[in-house]
Amino acid sequence: MRLPIQAVGLMVLMILAPLSGCFGENEVETLDAGSLSVSNSDALQAGMWQTITLQATNGIAVFVPYFIQDPGSMRAQNGTVLDMKSGDKVSMNILFPPRNEEIVFFLGDIGRVDWPIREPDQSWMAWLSNPSTGSAVQAVDNQDTGGMWPWLVPGNATGGEVVPLVMETSRPFRSDLTEENGVGASDGWVNGRDVYDWVDFITDDTPCATCGPDGAVGYLDRWVGNANPSYEHAVT
Q: Nearest-5° angle of CA 197, CA 185, CA 92?
């Protein structure tokens, strides 16, 4: 009886061997918004350069559709795509739009290079409600000296569906201003209040005999020309 039992056992092992992969460690990873976490995602600021850290829980490609600073060239570029393995962490210096309360990253299979892009006059939130609009971008090698992260160029294919990770931002405001003084556009890397103050200063026609050849506090004659003393004064 012993020999037949051994024979049956060997046959069972041979039958089960091809199925072992189905029960082993190579489980299919589910791609969803939880596949990526963003540090301080509850305190993201709009209109300000800030450093965030991305961490992948699955192997994913991450499409970042905002201005970022490449860590190699140190230049700002309009978006990138990062391939991240499970457990990878990436820190980036990023600038979110100042007028959008929601921002979004897109997730896809690792190695993906083709992605959808919204219309120029469309928000990402509006695009999410109708993904049939817009066009496509493609991730290509960074051509800057020392550049590390891919550039985005116009593409011919969207690559199919994407998984959105939607987060909220808040815009900082100056505490010394009111609504009448433009508090809604008063802070950030570039903001309307600073622009207004600079234009007000440059065009100040208050008489001033010691302020330069314009005879005013501001820089009134900024016509570009050789030996124009007002222009040279403004440049200086």
A: 110
Neighbouring residues of 236: CB distance < 8 A, sequence distance ≥ 6: none
CA distance 95 to 69: 9
Q: Fold for domain 33-170?
A: Immunoglobulin-like (2.60.40)
Query: What is the per-residue pLDDT across 194-209, written as a single tens digit (0 to 9) for each?
Result: 888 888 998 999 999 9
Q: Give domain limits for the chain.
A: 33-170, 179-235
Please give the structure tokens belonging to residue 229. 């003393």
pTM: 0.73
The separation between the first and the last C-alpha atoms of the chain, rounded to the nearest angstrom, is 103
pLDDT tens digits, residue range 97-120?
Answer: 988 889 999 999 999 999 999 999
